[in-house]
Amino acid sequence: MLAHEKISAAIRDANADGRTALVPFVTAGYPQPDEFMATLESIAGIGDVVEIGVPFSDPMADGMTIQRSSFAAIENGVTLRWIFEQLDGNHIDTPLLMMSYLNPLLAFGYEKLAERARETGVCGFIVPDLPYEESADLRAALEAQGLGLVQLVTPATPAGRRKMLAEASRGFVYAVTITGITGGDDGLPADLAGYLDAVTAASPIPVCAGFGIRAADDVRNVGRHAAGAIVGSALVEVLERGENPAEFLQSLTLAAR
Amino acid sequence: MLAHEKISAAIRDANADGRTALVPFVTAGYPQPDEFMATLESIAGIGDVVEIGVPFSDPMADGMTIQRSSFAAIENGVTLRWIFEQLDGNHIDTPLLMMSYLNPLLAFGYEKLAERARETGVCGFIVPDLPYEESADLRAALEAQGLGLVQLVTPATPAGRRKMLAEASRGFVYAVTITGITGGDDGLPADLAGYLDAVTAASPIPVCAGFGIRAADDVRNVGRHAAGAIVGSALVEVLERGENPAEFLQSLTLAAR
Amino acid sequence: MSSVIKSSESEELLQALLDGRLPDERGRFGPFGGRYIPETLVPAFERLEQGVREHLPSESFQEDYARELREWVGRPTALSFAPRLSERWGTEVWIKREDLAHTGAHKINNAIGQALLAKRLGAERVIAETGAGQHGVASAAACARLGLPCRVYMGAVDIERQAPNVDRMHRLGAEVFPVESGDKTLRAAIDEALREWVSDPAGIYYLLGSAVGAHPYPYLVRELQSVIGKESREQMTRQAGGLPDAAFACVGGGSNAIGLFYPLLNDPIELIGVEAGGIGNGLGENAATLATGTPGVLQGSYSIILQDKDGNVQETQSVSAGLDYSGVGPEHALLQAVGRVKYVAASDDEALEALEELCELEGILTALETAHAYAYAKKWSVDNPVKRVLIGNSGRGDKDMPTLTKYPPRTRKHAGA
Amino acid sequence: MSSVIKSSESEELLQALLDGRLPDERGRFGPFGGRYIPETLVPAFERLEQGVREHLPSESFQEDYARELREWVGRPTALSFAPRLSERWGTEVWIKREDLAHTGAHKINNAIGQALLAKRLGAERVIAETGAGQHGVASAAACARLGLPCRVYMGAVDIERQAPNVDRMHRLGAEVFPVESGDKTLRAAIDEALREWVSDPAGIYYLLGSAVGAHPYPYLVRELQSVIGKESREQMTRQAGGLPDAAFACVGGGSNAIGLFYPLLNDPIELIGVEAGGIGNGLGENAATLATGTPGVLQGSYSIILQDKDGNVQETQSVSAGLDYSGVGPEHALLQAVGRVKYVAASDDEALEALEELCELEGILTALETAHAYAYAKKWSVDNPVKRVLIGNSGRGDKDMPTLTKYPPRTRKHAGA
Ligand SMILES: Cc1ncc(COP(=O)(O)O)c(C=O)c1O
Ligand SMILES: Cc1ncc(COP(=O)(O)O)c(C=O)c1O
Hints:
The complex is a heterotetramer, with two copies of chain A and two copies of chain C. Chain A is α/β, with parallel strands linked by helices. Chain A has helices at residues 3-16, 36-44, 64-75, 80-87, 102-108, 110-120, 136-143, 159-168, 192-202, 216-223, 233-240, 245-256, and strands spanning 21-27, 50-53, 96-99, 122-126, 148-150, 152-153, 173-176, 207-210, 228-231. In chain A, strands 5-4-3-2-1-9-8-7-6 form a nine-stranded parallel sheet. In chain A, helix 6 (110-120) packs across helix 7 (136-143). A six-stranded mixed sheet of chain C has the order 3-4-14-9-10-13, sandwiched between helices. In chain C, helix 5 (107-120) runs parallel beside helix 6, helix 10 (217-225) crosses helix 12 (255-261) and helix 15 (348-362) packs across helix 16 (368-383). One pyridoxal-5'-phosphate is lined by residues 105, 107, 131-132, 134-135, 210, 250-257, 322-323, 367, 369-370, 394-395 of chain C.
């Protein structure tokens, strides 16, 4: 099984189990670098796939919460190199995804990136500022190691493009549920069901919904029309408040049934 | 004897007496309006001719001292009309001169001005912002009452114009000793003697030197080459300090011998 | 004005004006103008008058002047059609953009012209007065351009309300001399500059900033500012397809207004000068000299001035420092007396409102002075719909920000999410 | 740049540039440029690109644009010969006066052009980012002119150091949105504007202020700013009798520089872009992106950026808010890579000194950004005497007074008697 297939498989397993797959996101090394692996392991114990956010100085697609966590992590010396070092020799079974803006990946070098990812159990990447059209080089490098590049679709994506992106995506298709940035609390759009159904119909791999999923109700809502729910800002806020992330995720899994 | 001839005569009398004529200047109603006549009388007891300054809101040719006194007098309600009222029925023998900017005279009306002047013992006018070329109307009105319009000459006045002004002047010729404004304490110019001699030579009437005469030495210096010395800012400063103007003038008369 | 000009003379004077025969030899615009100055200043003014007579008409001066206007000042300034203002006012509005001239107002036309003259007259240094600071900045810039030292007299009150311009003058290498005497505004600054001039009439050139003062200043400044009207005339014909029905300019001393009006005097255009109506009609509450003043002599010329019955000059009040002056140029006094130009006032509030309207409809932040012209032009347009109007936009409003911040825009959005 | 462009490709790319064949279909200038944006923004950018393709070349757009430039912006801006600066530098100095454009900088050329486009694209409102505030003011003015609501994102740090421009934006009816995230300067403001755009890609037009960002902005802004170089070319030929030997422009994002350089690329003119050298050569001490940066992706395009070895963007330092940016337009990256334009840096101190020199010799108070171009042009002139140089005077310095007051002019005279 290729690395990115592990992601799809984990989601399908959850669904087969009667659950909406839960995909928690955590900014690497936040709030404290020395707690990173412990936090990751505890989250991976609950989530079906875990997204690790690589902090970046210019998180243009993120809301205030993730921005703050990103800046704090950078301040604390968290880098892509450091993250891989932490992941070295980990025993996490849950497939890991990295979410990173393009520039840190460029600086690291695509080939080395793919190698280190494979070595450390990272099965794929989400690169929010890399649209499909600019992604050929990175995709090639990742594919050489069996890794996936997750594509995003949005409610505003036209049908043709939606299909193209869904087919190009690996691991899962990231269906952005609102046309805003991460961390808004405007709730989910009214036509959510139709939208998610359409993405699912276009997609050969599972579809996970993300952006604005903050509570059990949200998970329940998207769970009816998507294979998985991505929980980002809400989880980072839990970490920010010094609360227990596992407890928070546990409360969502009830809804995921 | 015409009114303006009284001025010339008073100066000539002083000279005949072996003295430089002393021409003190006082801003009307300064520092206190109710002391005006007393101050004037005491000054007139020493000066050969007395200049009464009509306060004006825009004393462009005056230095800070006289500006200040002028503004203070206006604040205290001193106007040309008020000055004439004070002078009504006065018993001062010394010829009086009024020094006023043109606008208060325009506002008062030239004919009424000349009448009131004649009635109150004012023998002539000095109008610092009225050059000869613009003075025909005022001169005509004053002459109709025998009053004089004193012309000024300066060290920068060319010889031809100097002669013209000296001949047009009535009462005396006002020889400005410095090319600055009143109240400077730069002292008197080096070529003072030559300058005053030249004005005197051009003039059918006595020449009085003014601007920057502050002390006995100055009176002595100009006295060698002019018929009279005009003392303005220095006297106003004495009033400003609340000192006795008569005493100050007395100290100058010693030098005037 | 019946007291000053008999109606029989009026027509003759108007004709003399239209024929370009005024001022006369003595610097008179009919009864107005002349030269009321201390004898100490007579040689300085005679030298200046002679210099003006010799150099101003000379081809070499005019060439230099035209080149500086073109290459450095940025002339011709644009003529803007104002589509949204036109719609709002129900008329066709054209704007002559002196705000786009170097340093931000029409003042530079005069400053660079006189600085060129100062150079030709061999002056060692230049002094100037300023109210709003625009003329001070213009003088400082023109003197820098020509390598002349420059000192600007500015009232202490104006220094405070026009802080940005004070900084600009300093940057441009000029000395700003705070005037603490008199009313501490423009009038006191002029007096102080005149006093300084007396101290060295040969070495100093006094660069006066408006069409006021003793002859030859009103004439000199008019000639230098007439470029505004000349360009407008040509541009209206070319861009708007014809001359305006009415032209408006704000009037402080009157330099931008005379510059706009003079080349249009012979045309069938209603000309309207707008003064500062301040906070009310009472003496001391405004600077509406022509609208409410009486004849008198102030700072060198016989004109209309704001004064009390004893001839003391009245202090003025206006939200705009550049209009805050008790006198007005003598040519305007005549233009009013003979009925060729109408002079009206706009209040502080009306000016502020007009400034805001122009900003929001046309994206032009005009000077508070200029805003008075808009305020009245709007009124006029309501009474005279579907005409074509021309407004002399004498300067930009950047300098007024310290004042304007006291009057937050009514439509201001609130910052934050 | 050997790592990015093989020398065999270099000549070919230069030729493509000179032939006007760049950017290519994908918005690339050789390896640089492109479109690195979130999927959420893809429809917005596609709509924009299509709009640019449809409207920009259309006769009707070009007519409207030319008319706004002429009638409202005040173009052509003057080309000034600088006699005293020429003498001091020992060369012939010509200055392209974008400071005379409406609102005081070249930014308005772009702002009014894009606002016209926004109108054609049916946008309900406009958002913009600003650093020095010049682009914010220009956007506010252009939107007012066309009746579009406008919100300007501005870093909290910049809000403080460019206070006069904040006030002007408010007056012009724009909302100024303080950005407290990131570096609180231009970069954070762009991010914030992009985030906002995502919320309503159809209703919002994002009016980007420099030749940076994702395709089609670098192309669009270059096309709109090229009026600077086109006019300069024509004016130099007519006024100076020939093209310059060298042309200088300051480079922040690079819009005024590309506007000046692009129409001169085919001429035998040495082209030099001057970046902000800040307080030193160390990372974080300057904003000299091209001079000291490395390739990377920032805010939508692959270009040269200031970053650390981990790809985190470096904060910058410059006395001039408008140059204080860690990226640079991709076309400049290519122009440097192929050797057609040289990019250098001038330090804060050098810029301040140059600003002062220009003020005092030519009476032009230039923007702190622009002053960097003068600083290096002077150095170049000393090494290359008796040439003819052209400097793009991108804006005026009024907005910089709050900063400049911290650096009193060395020649400042003391007020008082
Ligand atoms: C922009 C502007 N307009 C008008 C004026 C008034 O002067 P004038 O009446 O001489 O044009 C000033 C004076 O400073 C000014 O700055
Ligand atoms: C006057 C001026 N020049 C230059 C710049 C730098 O921008 P660009 O490099 O896009 O021309 C700015 C930016 O605000 C500016 O205000």
